[in-house]
UniProtKB/TrEMBL annotation:
<keyword id="KW-0456">Lyase</keyword>
<dbReference type="InterPro" id="IPR002129">
    <property type="entry name" value="PyrdxlP-dep_de-COase"/>
</dbReference>
<dbReference type="InterPro" id="IPR015421">
    <property type="entry name" value="PyrdxlP-dep_Trfase_major"/>
</dbReference>
<dbReference type="InterPro" id="IPR010977">
    <property type="entry name" value="Aromatic_deC"/>
</dbReference>
<keyword id="KW-0663">Pyridoxal phosphate</keyword>
<protein>
    <submittedName>
        <fullName>Glutamate/tyrosine decarboxylase-like PLP-dependent enzyme</fullName>
    </submittedName>
</protein>
<keyword id="KW-0210">Decarboxylase</keyword>
<dbReference type="InterPro" id="IPR015422">
    <property type="entry name" value="PyrdxlP-dep_Trfase_small"/>
</dbReference>
<keyword id="KW-0045">Antibiotic biosynthesis</keyword>
<comment type="similarity">
    <text>Belongs to the group II decarboxylase family.</text>
</comment>
<dbReference type="Pfam" id="PF00282">
    <property type="entry name" value="Pyridoxal_deC"/>
</dbReference>
<dbReference type="InterPro" id="IPR015424">
    <property type="entry name" value="PyrdxlP-dep_Trfase"/>
</dbReference>
Amino acid sequence: MTDDLLPRAAELARDFRADLAGRPVFPHDLDPAAVRTALGDLPDGSTAPATVLEQLRTAVEPALVASAGPRYFGFVTGGALEAAAAADILTTGWDQNGFNPLTSPAAALAEEVAGTWLKDLFGLPPTASFGFVTGGQGGNTVCLAAARHAVLERAGWDVETRGLHGAPPVRVFAGSGRHATIDRALRLLGLGTQSLAEVPTSPDGAIDVPALRAALSTADGPAIVCLQAGEVNTGAFDDFPAAIAAARQHDAWVHVDGAFGLWAAACPALRHLTDGMAGADSWSADGHKWLNVPYDSGYAFCAHPAAHVAATSYTAAYLVGDSPETLRSPGDHVLESSRRARGFTTWAALRQLGRQGVADLVERNCALARRFAAQLSDAGADIVNDVVLNQVLVGFGDDTPRVLEAVQRSGECWMGGTTWQGRRLMRISVSNWQTTEADVDRSVAAIRTAWRAVQTR
Ligand SMILES: *Cc1c(COP(=O)(O)O)cnc(C)c1O
């Protein structure tokens, strides 16, 4: 019986995926208590595995979100590509510990190859080190740990040994439009959010370089500058050549948060947005957003492998075995020891798409974002940002919150809200490989219907 269980799980996953475009995008009539009841109590005895699978499916099915589908435009969310979803199932079946070459040479080698491909796609230095992390948060945390090591080492302080008590203060500079994961990374790293000097941004959300220059000049000492490829609301890119030049004047480490925007570098039509970016010291990106691989998948790249490894590796006596010396050790570049073999899904996605396919995916999504903007503008809505990438900010005057709620309730599509420069707006992000022009047209129709209903109420 148990032999049939993995195919059964795959079949259920297949059926769900096949129906993604057909089901309501968000389960609005959800009764959480009913789901809790269906999930039940902790049993004293065992349950047959096949029964467990059916119980799980039945219990949570009403609460599932079609976020992997073509009309989900919330946050910045992709949906797993076919090869990546299948490779993820295989990753589970193989159940490798991706810690190091001794626990799984397969995991180590797949990460080595996929990581090298990613550097190539992003135009990063071939000598850069990389870690396959859990996502953008993991990427920012690992990169800022490497930054903390390097800027304090230059100040004669070994932070890994001595900690931060008595250390020279580290100043961190980031635009007001930075992602909240930067702040959390600073908290986790003991730098604290007070170390952060918030730099104003221009109206499109990019860091104001003269203001950055002025902020850097107020003091000396260890400094880290956090730039952004793809502002979370507008998709704007910082002016990398100018911002990096300003940072270099003060010997600051430059980190680029490129959770989704780094993918512009893999696309000839958009690559200009990332000009100069490769001159930074570290970069983070997500796999589970725009590459459309399953969760959890992100990347941390570092131009200074020694700083990267100094911040994240460890050695324990029981680990020193006959590990093939020449193989890269994945666990030395991330925050976990025992870990999922994350390289398989990224390798599979890149292999399925190829260089051209990645560029096409990114470019197609950006064209669909422009389609949204054009049609909503025609409908009388206010397009607030310059749609340089896949993000569209839309205002419906005072009706915005109610339009947003009505659209979300429609089940036709789902997009989130945001507050941008004091205005409550609809935030549309197009990041899914399956989204078509028809999906955009249908979503615009749903938005127009919702707006009309709000106006006549
Ligand atoms: C999504 C995002 C993050 C966080 O990534 P997670 O994968 O959700 O941890 C960080 N920075 C930016 C710019 C993002 O868009």
